[in-house]
Fold each of these.
Amino acid sequence: GIQYAYTVQGKEDEAAREIDAYVTKNPSAPQADKLAFKKGDLYFSRKDYATAAAEWDAFMKKYPASPLVPEALFWTGKSQAALGRSDEAARTFTLLVDRHPKSPLVPDALLEVGTLHAGKKNLEQAVSVYGSVEEKFPGTEAAQRAAYEKGVAYRDAGRADQARAQFSQLSADR
């Protein structure tokens, strides 16, 4: 609709106003939650992470039963991480994992938690999180990424033998 046209033109604020007007006028419309969620996307795409996180938070308060809530949590965590709020981001990703354990975003949320630990040099926690992704989601792309990141964390922790073993296992699995 018109929101898309505004977005293509780089007029995210106008698109957000159109979404607000539509959702206010049609709060029970089947697509109202999707449009409200889209507002966060608009701001995230232009790297306005604080506004994106606020929009997804408002979305989750207004539509707590929406199937898009796990995705809103994920992108809120990504926004918080981009803002340097790593502890808050880790809590948000963990909330997604705990409240929506069947969401397809769980492996990626756990990877993000591991990456946040690694970024703060909490390498043992990072290794543990990456190991849980490998264990809980074997054969997935997330498990492969976790295996690699676990090797990096071993290396960064000065555990060269474990890093070599981890990277050797990755090579053997390919």
Amino acid sequence: QGDGLSAESPYILASKKHVEELKDAMRDTDTYVCPAYLEFVSDIYLNEDGASEKTSWLPIGTGKNPYHVGTPGQEDFVIAQVKGNGHTIHNLYINVTEDNYTDYLCIRNSQRKQSMHLGFFGNISSTVVSDLGFNNAEIIVDEKVYEIFAADELLQDISVGVVAGVAFNSDIVG
């Protein structure tokens, strides 16, 4: 397992547990050093095939401690490169409801306006994602959540994408 701080020593993602540990650690902006280089070495099943009960994914790059993932040297957390090595993320499921929508919010600017960026990653910036597939992705936003956003001036926008809700200056190839 590399530390992810260089392309020669990528942070290895071999299981759902590894992905969840990374995501959860990145939500702690005070103590965690985010790996800039991620590499998948196996397919990841976020939910079992055909499961009637699914766990809703909280995207990497989303949360009450907001940040982007992107270029090293920026003030944000950084992910410069994600190598999929031909592997697939299976059964990505995001279900945003009136009861849980605050878990998916991130603060975007100094006016404290909040947005919701839904995908495997919430935000990526200046990141190269290569050779990573997605199978059976489902992202649902309840109509009541849109109504809440329309009524609150601090809630700015909802963006949805399978790889990332928002991808600034990023390359997604393969």
